[in-house]
Structures
1.
Amino acid sequence: MDIAALLSDPAAWAALITLIVMEVVLGIDNLIFISILSNKLPEHQRAKARRIGIMMALVMRLALLSTLAFIVGLVQPVFTLPWQGPIGEHGEPMWELAFSWRDIILIAGGLFLVWKATTEIHEKVEPGDGHGVMDTGGRVVTNMGAAIFQIILLDLVFSIDSILTAVGMTDHLPIMFAAVIITVILMLVAANPLANFINNNPTVVMLALGFLLMIGAVLIADGFGFHVPKGYIYAAMAFSAAAEGLNMLARKATSKKAIAADTKH
């Protein structure tokens, strides 16, 4: 189907909108990680690191879309391991764990995300034990090269997950390209406000790190073949974010009352 036919096809527009929504939801994880990591840099380097990280995500996703045959091949089993479960009639294990390159990448990325989230939480709880230079706000400052390298690693993991989702939702390559480009533009627009919001609210930082820890565990489980429906994950994240929003409103109201009381006296 050519571009003109796609533009006049309501089903194509519906697929594009649906895919953009899915890509935005999947991109939230990536954006949270980029925001937390870039906030560890000196202030004048943060926006640049976010732009580089998000543009690298775009480059990776477009490159992966250009090699769909390679992407499809990533889900083919590379090796299998017998699973210690019930034995079949002929003495063979009833289940086997088959690992593809996608599974290996997800497991490696999940382990990295769990390790990174855990070390970040440790730095927040015990800032004196962090590796790096402390700024005037008591935050550990990393260097641009290290931050970009870690962002690229996670970009790769999230990009593969994102593109495989796109491939499963539509057969039209132009729709996939359009959805990815629009999603990355939205990420670029949201990057600085989200990062500033996270940076200005310490409790939100800890909540976001908890999200990353959970996402890392889900990636590992997915790599081992135990699929956790993402709807449950994002519902839990939305509920936690709503609860934290109420806490922030309560703290703000308490602060206003305290200021009002001080003014009267």
2.
Amino acid sequence: MQPYTSVQHQFPLQSLNTFGIAATAHAYIRITNTEQLIGVYADATWRALPRLVLGGGSNVLLTDDFPGLVLHIATEGKQLVGGNDTHHFVRAAAGENWHGLVQWTLSQNLGGLENLALIPGTVGASPIQNIGAYGLEIKDVFHSLTVFDPRDGAIRSMDAAACRFGYRDSVFKHAAGRNLVILDVTFALPRTWQPRLHYAELAQAVAEQGWTAPTAQQVADTVVAIRRRKLPDPAVIGNAGSFFKNPVVSSMQCAALLAQFPSLVHYAQPDGSEKLAAGWLIDQCGWKGRKLGAAGVYPKQALVLVNNGGATGGEVVALAQAIQADVMARFGVALEAEPVFV
């Protein structure tokens, strides 16, 4: 008997990617526990087929039907698992909804994740992308995670150093870790909580509420309000959030751009480089609100590409490439897409 749930063939993936792209998988298995996952990888039936591990589908662009096996990670569970003198440790299964976890920690009077409220996707995807928003990244609240390694069937724990976190980056996006399947993630949340308000837009929004000492819940509510005002709800308009990374350039290149474009939005980095606002670059090229087929640029935020209804993955790719070409031609800056193209 197979140690996993039944296989479904020609499975529709439209509801499993936040872009809402219509595509099918040759085969699909919903994974609800580690034993099922191990069983699939041990089954010779699937060894010749490509595999795609899918969580919430919030950082994926399906460009065609998938000719292999989709493993949909739908594991559940979250709990306080201890701590030390300075931090509480919270562990969540990879299939847990990310925003659901943030809400749960707040209900347990555990602050630390509130700046990352309302980010779509699952817990397991959060360290892969080192998700970040409003002055906080996963690496800032990360303790460890557990992975299954299909190469030898082992289950291992990895700390922050092993995950090699970078800006919207980790070892899981590179050859050394691309095949690892994340099973759960443990976060270190401060016992002595202080709001992180060094991101100007968030600080201003909190101040406008008259909160001089906001609670973690109030910070989360403010983040949710900002995101809902600026970003489309994937349940209404298909999208994958910010489509491009903010490019990082040398201080010399930034100075040259500022001489030509004085209103250039840029942020100094600790290593002396400068991070440019990709949304500003795209907006200056006139792309905000424009369409290419059924794909388009969100009218309220140039960094977000959307499915206006019936868009194909190919249309989204063509739109992204046209934007990249315009930004390169005008500013000499390369934009890198955040979603994984499948």
3.
Amino acid sequence: MSWSIPRRITAIVVAILGILYPVLVYFGLSSYAPRYILLLLLAVIIVRAALFVASKKYLQAAMALSVAIIVGSAGIASEIVAIRFYPVIVAATLAAIFTVSLFSGMPIIERFARLREDDLDDYARVYTRNLTKVWIGFFIVNGVIAAWTALYASLETWTLYNGLISYILVGILFVGEWPVRKWMRARHDQKIKSQNPRTDQEPV
């Protein structure tokens, strides 16, 4: 029990650092050499992997360590490129996780949906599978744009996209999906109702 509190605090700090990463890089490069920022990034990723291990999430831990290896290997060639490519690697990792889930019995979005309602009908299962595919497409497009900003854009543009615009796009997709889901569900239910009219009528 005593270890759970520091672990939660560490997880929160790591999450905040991940969200603020582009902004921290932008200001950090004005005061520190790229190698120090790269080493800090690797340390944060390794801590995240350790948290996954502590929670017995070994697959996530293995993926986090894979990200650390990729970033570290890229840093050998160019520390700046490694630092700026981290959002690309994150997007690629998320796309890979969501894609693998499509072939592992239960898509990621369905797993999230079952946290609220365990008994999903056929329509809900098909919808969550398709929504998982939408998120895969988003991560791929986001990763391509992030890669462009890492290779060709200025540090300011890289920070603006990866530290603000990409989060706004995630929010739009996340929030905008809710009314679309409600509308499609109502349309589906109405279609089922029209195909199966009630035969039981009250006696005259």
